[in-house]
Structures are given as C-alpha cells and as structure tokens.
Design brief:
By secondary structure, this protein is of the alpha/beta class. The chain has two domains: 287 residues, Purple Acid Phosphatase, chain A, domain 2; 194 residues, 5'-Nucleotidase, C-terminal domain (5'-nucleotidase,  domain 2), CATH 3.90.780.10. The chain has a six-stranded mixed beta sheet with strand order 4-3-2-1-14-15, with no helix packed on it. It has a six-stranded mixed beta sheet with strand order 7-8-10-11-13-12. A hairpin with a 2-residue loop joins strand 12 and strand 13. The N and C termini lie far apart (72 Å).
Length: 507
C-alpha cells in the first residue's frame, strides 16, 4: 500500500516574519507569513523548522527589548501551523527563560535531543508521529554544540548542550524499528563539499556529512549555514537546506511503498501572489516596530554607507571605524576590533534606530582582554586571510570566507593600531608593518583590546583570544551601546575617525 508524507521545511528565519527586510518599509517577496500562505496542510503533512527563530531582525529585537515578550513570535509560528521545531544557536541568545516561554506557547513540539537538563535528562526528546494514513514518522532534532563556544555562559547555565552526532545516533537506534520514516532536523550544516566530498572545515561546528556517512536517517533537514541546498542523496540520506530570512523553503514529498521510500523536493519562494495575512493584533505590532525604527536618535557629519566587500577590506571602512570609535569610548582600551555582518545598511546622516539595528543585528556584548604583541599580530594575520589575489593580480574575497558558509563577519577591522597587509603573500606572513603609536609591535609588548563576546570566545578561528587575561566585561548589548552613544552626543554632530588603507600589493 502506498502512503505519502508531505513536509514544508524552513530554517534560519531569524525573525523575518513579515514581507520586509527592515532596511526600509518597502514590501518584498519574503517573510515567513508569505511562505506559509503557500502551505497546504492535511493529516499527512508536517510543517517543520530547524531553528534560529528568536533573534536576527528588528522585529525580534523589538520583542525582546521593548515588549519583553516573544508571545507574538509564537503566535505567528502557530498561525503557520508548525508541528515540530528544533533550536538554533541564536535561540539561546536571550537566555533559557526567554526560550522556554516561546516553546511553551507553541502548539507544535520542540525536538532537540542534545539539549540536556541539569539531571542529564533530555529536554526535548525525539517524537514519533502517526499520520492519518497510518505512516509512522520518527523525528529527532539536534543543534550544533558550538553554542557552548559562542554563547554567554549565563544564558545556557541551566542546560548542557552535548555532542549532536552522538545523540542523533542513539535516538535513531531507539526509534528506527518503531517507524517507517526517520527524520533528523539539524541546526547545523555540512563540513564537506557535497559534490566532491572535500573537507571544508576541520571543526565540529557542522557534522551533517558525518551524519550521512555513518548514520542512516532517511531524511536530514539542515540549516545554520544559510545555503540553498536542493534535495539530493548523500550516502543514502536525502538532504536539503533553505536560505535564511524566510526567502525560501522546501516542499518535500515522501512516498512509502513495498519497495521502500521515494523522496522528492522543490525549493519554493514567496511571490507576488503570496499573501502576508495575519491578525490585526500582530499587524499592529509590526506597524509599531516600523514606526519605532524610524525614530531619529542622532546625527553624523556625513552618511556612513557600505561599499563592496573587497573595497572595504582593502581601504578600510567608515562604518567599522565608527563602531570601533564607540567601543574605544566605552571600554577605554588601547585597541579595538570589530567585524561587520554579511549584510549591512550603514548609517544615514540623520541616524535612526533602523540604521543601527540593520547594521548591527547581533546581541553582542564587549570584552576587554590583555593581549601580547605576538597574539595581536596572529589575530591580524587571521583577518588577513580574508582577501586573496587571483590569477589577474586582482584582490578578491577568499573562498574560505565564502564556502561552505558566507562569513564576512569573521574579518575584523582594527582601530588604535596601524597595520598594512599584502594579501599576495603566504598566509601567516602577510603583515608588512604593524605599529602602535608609531612603534613597531614586538611579541612581548602588552596591550588592552576591546572585542565582542563572539570573537572573545575564539569563534571565527581566533584561538588566541580565549587564552588572554580578561580586564573588563561590558554587559550592554551593542545596539543599546550605539544608541547610548548617540544620546550622550545628542547636542553634537558626530565626526568619525578615518581609517588607513589596509591592504597593498608590494611589487
């Protein structure tokens, strides 16, 4: 007898529920509500999300900072009909209590096998669902355990996040003989190139390829990397991944018969025919968000707008200069380093909250470290890997920052130190000069450096930072700190320090 399962799968929505990117009020063909208007649900359909719902947009910032509630987020997920969700790393950014209130308000079920309670029990165990047609489906969720690296310890003190591969394996062993279809919902991605099998990263941040190689799930629903991966078989497991911010989703069909399973899928995107419809209450919150974003908080001497990535990396960038200026102002450190998100709006001359939140979308706080000259140079050398030189002697973004995941945010801009880099040289030997107050930096020199808590954890392949001595921690989120800076300077037109050219090709 033939039995069918239909799945609508999303991941990394990051709070983009409405049809806007929040850089403006302009309506676009995006947003979870537009996607969900295309979902056709019946008793043999599952709607599943792989995490990173609670953080990432102006809407989620407003919910957390102004409303102090994620009830509207859960209401949207319920309207969309979600049956199962797992947790993403960013769903821990506001702490376990905030996360719990969201999960408790969901009509659907959270599955996240590798999140454990204090007594070691599984907080969100796998589920077995019997469809209307009798098909039994086993669903296990897991999240990258690099949450332990990135997250503020206080935010995850109530739980432990253990090895996702080990937990997925144990869950599969327990449930596989009880079900017809096995599904792993993984907030994580692929550590190898799917076409060639080439290893792309030696870290354990992403282990989807290992799951395909060593386990035998029928279907692996992945996320985290923000990659559009069409449905395909990898070592016998059918895999997919959607792009971020509710710009696309996967419609998956599983047909079970005596011959086994046949799985097919399509990448779907919201279009002009898609409707962004919801309750008056939720539409009112979105309107409040848009009005709140348009409030002017300060004035700059001139606009600070983004350029293409290579130009900014080579010549320095006024947006990074401004954020470094703020970090130095509040930290009193000698040196500051800042990275920029993959997509940034920049600051208009009249700066609004919209400018700030769409330019600095992360809930980072600051750490001041004592760092040696040797480690500082090593950090700058790591950043220098961001640019390579192609066969035409043209500077380009290194593939290692584009694959398997786009990671422009792992390139740092420095202030307080003068340095020049030649990207044509061998990695690790690209610094031409590196001076502090006009003097070349020696290995034994000691400095204070201000960086965000993400970088302070060593994330982005900066292993020198966690070994440094902590001088100070500033537990104010950067968006709030930037707003505070404008409030402090409200009677002034703010000037921004200018950076020097960073990269040159020596003849």
């Amino acid at each position: 007898m033939e039995q069918k399962l239909k799945i609508y799968f999303t991941s990394d929505v990051h709070g983009y529920f409405f049809s806007t990117n929040y850089a403006s009020r302009e309506e676009q063909n995006r947003g979870l509500l537009k996607c969900a208007s295309q979902f056709e649900k019946d008793e043999n359909t599952l709607i599943i999300d792989a995490g990173d719902i609670l953080q990432g947009s102006a809407y989620t910032y407003y919910c957390q900072s102004e409303l102090k509630s994620n009830a509207s987020i859960a209401a949207i997920m319920n309207q969309c009909g979600y049956d199962y969700v797992t947790l993403g790393n960013h769903d821990f950014n506001y702490g376990i209590d905030y996360q719990d209130s969201y999960i408790e308000a969901l009509n659907g079920t959270c599955v996240c096998q590798n999140v454990k309670n204090a007594d070691g029990s599984t907080r969100y165990p796998y589920q077995i669902k019997t469809l209307g047609n009798g098909l039994k489906v086993g669903i296990v969720g897991i999240v990258t355990d690099y949450v332990n690296v990135w997250e503020k310890p206080a935010n995850i003190a109530a739980v432990s996040i253990v090895d996702p591969f080990v937990e997925a394996k144990m869950a599969l062993e327990e449930m596989k003989d009880q079900v017809d279809v096995t599904i792993c919902v993984y907030h994580g991605g692929f550590e190898r190139d799917l076409a060639t099998g080439k290893l792309l990263s030696e870290t354990k941040e992403n282990v989807a390829y290992q799951i395909c190689e060593e386990l035998s799930f029928d279907l692996l629903l992945t996320g985290h990397q923000h990659m559009s991966i069409p449905g395909q078989l990898v070592n016998g497991t059918y895999v997919v991944q959607p792009k971020e911010n509710a710009t696309e989703y996967h419609k998956i069909e599983v047909v079970a018969n005596d011959g086994g399973l046949e799985i097919t899928s399509m990448i779907k995107r919201p279009d002009d025919a898609s409707k962004c419809e919801t309750s008056e209450e939720l539409l009112a919150i979105e309107a409040d968000v848009q009005d709140w974003l348009d409030n002017v908080v300060g004035e700059l001497e001139k606009p600070l707008l983004p350029e293409d990535k290579v130009t900014m990396a080579v010549n320095g960038n006024a947006i990074a200069d401004f954020i470094n200026q703020i970090q130095l102002h509040y930290s009193k450190a000698q040196i500051s380093a800042v990275s920029l998100a993959n997509e940034i709006a920049g600051f208009n001359k009249k700066v609004t909250r919209r400018d700030i939140i769409t330019t600095y979308p992360y809930p980072n706080t600051l750490v001041v470290y004592e760092i040696s000259g040797k480690d500082l140079r090593a950090a700058i050398e790591r950043s220098a890997e961001y640019v390579d030189v192609d066969e035409n002697d043209k500077m380009v973004i290194s593939k290692s920052f584009l694959e398997p995941k786009v990671e422009h945010y792992n390139y740092d801009y420095y202030a307080g130190v003068s340095y020049q880099i030649d990207p044509s040289k061998e990695q690790g030997k690209r610094i031409i000069s590196c001076t502090f107050e006009g003097k070349e930096i020696n290995d034994a020199d000691m400095f204070s450096i201000c960086i965000n808590n993400y970088r302070a954890s060593g994330a982005g392949d900066y292993p020198m930072y966690p070994k440094c001595k902590v001088i100070n921690e500033i537990n104010i989120e950067m968006v709030d700190m930037i707003m505070n800076y404008f409030e402090e300077m409200k009677n002034e037109v703010i000037q921004v320090m200018s950076s020097e050219k960073i990269m040159v090709l020596q003849s």
